[in-house]
Design a protein that fits this description.
single chain; alpha+beta; 7-stranded mixed sheet; 13 helices
Length: 403
């Protein structure tokens, strides 16, 4: 890569390069190191973000060949270079909109079939001869499988893929829908957001992952007055320079420790989760469960899939296959487990089981213990009044006859 550095400046900046990803890498740098790096970049009219983008490998040279739906396509059509907390990554079908800017165009090529043949296959060249400030001591990639609208975070699950290996990512779709009864519940009782119910400052689409990312950025802004350049932020939030890196590193343990306190009783306190920036999951969402399998890559004894491997020799390459594992998916319904009708029916079932009665028997008991005695009492009173009335009439007639 071509930089506008003098040879002397390049020699000074070379040992400081690992510090540019201070918010993602465990580095032991002093405030003086950050000041020196900031001074060197400023002297060449580079901002921190510009330098990060400049030193990051590009996707066109690393993605050798791509295949989807059984057809080979140019990799630059399927993949885009996007900004994440790990740096700049090559992403497929990534559609996160930050501050009104779409990080990648929504692709028109999708697969709705299952099996490796109809999925996505990519041959990659990690270019290990160009490694200098690598995060890990191996040649290869970190492969992430996450939601289309989820901003890629440092703590996202991933799989390490080494050179000379082939990895299979087989996914299973999961669709969850909420019932009308759940939608009518109070937010902090159902503990999930309906569509467009919660708005974020940085992201156009709400996901729980994006909410946590924005929450973490907000905490950094409150403590240090700025947000690291690769972290999501609102438009009016200040971007940190290397001069604020020491503040970020001083709070790194707080930012990446567990967010659940040990003294919270989630069973008795219905609002126990509100303190986590109100980052509830979505009530209705479509997710994917991904499983990773890795194996050695050996083309010496195979003539299959020649259109993917034709024209180059596999040396330090690696291959990634992503596809649907089965023709079936999981469809789940998010509903209220217990409400007054359930308790009403549950009471009737328990009383029938342990007392040998049902609701009709219960009403009969109430009738015989209350309604029937009252009815008998009223009947006796009415008969007594009628008897007294007849007795008076007889006495009256007897007097008339005597006269």
């Amino acid at each position: 890569m071509n930089f506008s550095f003098t040879s002397e400046t390049a020699d000074q900046i070379r040992p400081l390069i690992p510090y540019v990803l201070y918010s993602a890498l465990p580095v032991n740098a002093t405030p003086a190191d950050y000041r020196s790096l900031h001074r060197l970049l400023t002297s060449a009219n580079y901002t921190h973000s510009d330098f990060l983008e400049k030193i990051s490998p590009d996707c066109e040279t690393q993605l050798v060949r791509c295949k989807i739906l059984g057809q080979v396509h140019p990799c630059n059509v399927l993949f885009q270079r996007v900004k994440t907390q790990h740096g700049f990554c090559c992403s497929f079908n990534y559609n996160v909109i930050i501050n009104g800017n779409q990080t990648a165009e929504e692709l028109s090529i999708h697969s709705n079939r299952f099996g490796p043949k109809w999925g996505l296959s990519v041959v990659l060249d990690p270019q290990i001869e160009d490694y200098y400030a690598s995060r890990n001591k191996f040649g290869g990639y970190q492969v992430y499988a996450h939601g289309v609208y989820d901003f890629l975070n440092i703590n996202d699950p991933h799989q390490l893929v080494f050179t000379g290996n082939s990895i299979h990512i087989h996914t299973a779709p999961l669709i969850t829908q909420a019932t009308t009864l759940l939608k009518n519940q109070d937010l902090h009782l159902r503990r999930c957001y309906l569509r467009n119910e919660r708005k974020l400052l940085a992201f156009a689409e709400y996901t729980q992952q994006n909410c946590f990312s924005e929450c973490r950025s907000g905490k950094v802004l409150k403590i240090c007055g700025c947000v690291p350049p690769l972290w999501p932020r609102a438009q009016n939030w200040t971007v940190c320079t290397l001069l604020e890196a020491s503040c970020i590193m001083a709070q790194i343990d707080t930012l990446f420790t567990t967010i659940y306190p040990s003294n919270t009783d989630y069973k008795s306190d219905l609002k126990a989760e509100r303190y986590i920036c109100d980052c509830y999951p979505e009530c209705e969402f479509q997710g994917y469960k991904a499983n990773f399998d890795s194996m050695s890559l050996d083309r010496n004894y195979s003539i299959n899939n020649m259109d993917l491997y034709r024209g180059f020799e596999l040396k330090n390459h690696l291959v990634v296959h992503a596809y649907y594992a089965d023709m079936f998916g999981a469809y789940m319904r998010l509903d209220v487990v217990y409400h007054w009708q359930n308790y009403f029916g549950l009471f009737g079932g328990i009383t029938s089981l342990f007392m040998g009665i049902n609701f009709i028997s219960g009403f009969e008991i109430i009738f015989f213990l209350s309604v029937r005695p009252v009815a008998h009492l009223l009947t006796r009173i009415n008969k007594r009044r009628q008897a007294m009335k007849k007795q008076k009439e007889l006495n009256k007639n007897h007097k008339v006859m005597r006269n």
